Amino acid sequence: MISRRFALVTAVYLATFMAVLDISIVNMALPTLQTALNTDLAGLQWVVDAYALCLSAFMLSAGPFSDRYGYKRCWLAGVALFTVSSGLCALAPNLTVLLVGRVAQGMAGALLIPGALSILSHAFPDPRSRAHAIGGLSSFSALSLIIGPLLGGVLVDTVGWPSIFLLNLPLGVAVLVLGGISIPERRHPRHAALDPAGQLLAVLALGALTFGLIAAGEHGWTHALPRYALLTALLGMVAFVWVESRVARPVLPLALFRHGEFSRANVASFVLGFSAYSSLFFFSLFLQRIQGYGPAEAGLRMMPQFVLSGLASILFGRLHQRFTLSSLLIAGYLLMGGAMTLMVLLDATTDYRWVGLLFALLGAGMGLAVPGTGLAVMNAVPPERAAIASAVINALRQTGMAVGIALMGSLMSTQAIRHLSAASGDPVLARQAVTGATPAPELNDIATQLTAALGSGFHLAMAVAGAAGLLTAALLIGARRMAAVPEPAV
């Protein structure tokens, strides 16, 4: 009979694996989903962003919610919701139902991912044992990102796109059983800091921002719909900051951002999501729609990014013994920004050796940036604020990914439409072809032009992502130089 502690660790690892896997595995099914559900590029952006948006918007409330209602109860409720919503996604007959399932998955993931750290920390009071347990959790998270694209591609090619969601059903049932018998219940109602106004405004602002950016790519930046949505997002953000600065126990403690190191690390975390995490969406489209590979082949070709990311993360501790945290962070963001900037040179005929090399450089940069950014945030706050700091950095990273897919996806779409309009002389056909509103057989006459147009859009998206990474490296270099300048004697 398995021990209670082993069952607890297994449940937490599997649940985190399941939640993080859904960040990467879905990207490999995007072109297939576009055909199966008869949707356009904006619909594909929402398939990924609905999950990321709810994950980021509700993550800050997970801790206070668990304090009030019980950590075990909330975490298991998250597992159950994630499992049921995965089944809904697999059975979705259209895009609307799929998006409802993705929203539910994101809300459930917001309970699962931060709750895992809390459960492990409580189960392993000894610092050394706790470090091993949390290290294993990080390895499982990295493993899910590594195998997600490959597993997703194989499943889509051999079984069909619903299988990427059906995979969560047996995992979810196993987690419910193991977690139910092993996780002790605890609650801290006096510490609960529910902030319904702040939570509502966060969802409103992020949702309006994402909707406005995606609508801009679909209808154009001068259309009334994106303009009103972006105005709503701006007003929502202003109201959110106003509320958070006045409530006694806010969902986002703004006082933390008075610390320069904490603010810089969270800006870096946002860029990490904006540039690197969102790249899966664009790489899937590049490999499948521009270079013409199938889902399984595309997943295999993305492996250098995740393998190098995992290796660099494993070596991070040793590297930190020889180099300063600042140096490792700067190197990570320089590699990320440089690799993505060089991707503007890729096209439909580029030899895979160059594509794979840039994927590997990006992965190495991520392997330095992810643990380095997390460590920088933890170093910037006192121990009693570690939990909320962890929630903030994760929420901003997921927000960055949602905004990155929405903004760069719209830029890619707009640039591709502009390019194809000039080449074909038919702006209406160009918009329909790029967004996927025109049936594939009708595109045979402009197939080559469409590929070149999508490549042009991909180049613009990568230029923006690369610039964000390089600017972050410049910010970190400037901060280090300022810290090295001695204060003048008084």
Can you give a write-up of this model?
Helices cover 80% and strands 0% of the residues. With 490 residues, the protein is mainly alpha-helical. It folds into three domains: 1-188, Growth Hormone, Chain: A (Up-down Bundle), CATH 1.20.1250; 196-248; 257-490, Up-down Bundle (Growth Hormone, Chain: A). The longest helix has 39 residues, at 386-424. It is globular, with a radius of gyration of 22 Å. This is Drug resistance transporter, EmrB/QacA subfamily protein. Belongs to the major facilitator superfamily. EmrB family. GO terms for molecular function: transmembrane transporter activity.
What is the strand and helix layout of this fold?
Layout: H1 4-24, H2 30-36, H3 41-69, H4 71-90, H5 95-123, H6 127-158, H7 163-166, H8 168-182, H9 196-219, H10 224-244, H11 260-277, H12 279-290, H13 295-301, H14 303-322, H15 325-342, H16 352-379, H17 386-424, H18 427-435, H19 447-484
Oligomer: single chain
| CATH fold category name of the largest domain | Growth Hormone, Chain: A
* Count of extended strands: 0
Distance between the termini: 69 Å
Tell me the name of the CATH homologous superfamily of the largest domain. Answer: MFS general substrate transporter like domains
Keywords: Cell membrane, Membrane, Transmembrane, Transmembrane helix, Transport
InterPro entries: EmrB-like, MFS, MFS_dom, MFS_trans_sf
GO cellular component, one term: plasma membrane
Protein name: Drug resistance transporter, EmrB/QacA subfamily protein
